[in-house]
Amino acid sequence: MEYFEIINKLKSLANPKNVASMARFGINPHKTLGVFMPRLRALAKQTGKNHSLARQLWASGIHEARILAGLVDESEKVTEKQMDKWARDFDSWDVCDGSCMNLFDRLEIAPKKAVAWSERKEEFVKRAGFALMACLAWHRKDAKDKEFTKFLPIIKQELSDNRNFVRKAVSWALRQIGKRSLYLNKQAVATAKEIQKTDSGAARWIASDAIRELTSQAVQKRLRQPKH
């Protein structure tokens, strides 16, 4: 499908009621059409991978077009410059997380960008750093544990940020790391217990959230199951 055909298709699916519903879940309603993810994923399959098209879709500034851009871009053609450009443009958690989950975590440079973005001041760039850590922990099944232990001191260092979209991503990263293996589970729980001792309300929220899930019967049972 061509760029204008896709934009026209997205606009034909626009639903103001959906926009209001999405806003209640913290999604930025600016330039949002109200098209839900199943429709976008179906459109991405129909479109196929196309780097040039992804850049056009991103440049449109339309919320759903930017989510679609992350779905159709070709990871092998994405540069660090493009990653930084998109990160600066993030203005909603779903675009941020979708870009990390569907595209950025496939890049070799992803761990480096996760660390760099986690130290930034901009709310959604910082969120992207921790979202990328979470996605790497989730998707890179064959990665060594040591590749994730290096994120734990950063999580501890940056946990005092009280902004909702940041602290939820920090919690997400800590929990995903702690669900990879028994070793990382113990390391993540130990980090969370250290965090509980701080004076920061945001930090204690993150710690309690992580400990509750990581020590749950369901997580412990899964981590102790023999690997096939």
Description:
The protein is mostly helical and 228 residues long. 69% of the residues lie in helices and 0% in strands. The chain is built from 15 helices and no strands. The protein has helices spanning 3-12, 16-24, 37-47, 51-59, 63-72, 80-89, 93-102, 110-118, 123-139, 146-149, 152-158, 164-178, 182-195, 201-214, 217-224. Helix 3 crosses helix 5 (63-72), helix 12 (164-178) runs parallel beside helix 14 (201-214) and helix 13 runs antiparallel to helix 14. It starts with a helix and ends with a helix. The mean pLDDT is 95.
Q: Helices and strands, in N-to-C order?
A: HHHHHHHHHHHHHHH
Question: How does the overall form come out from the CA principal axes?
Answer: globular
The low-confidence parts are none
* Structure annotation, total helices: 15
Structural class: mainly alpha
Compact description:
With 228 residues, the chain is mostly helical.
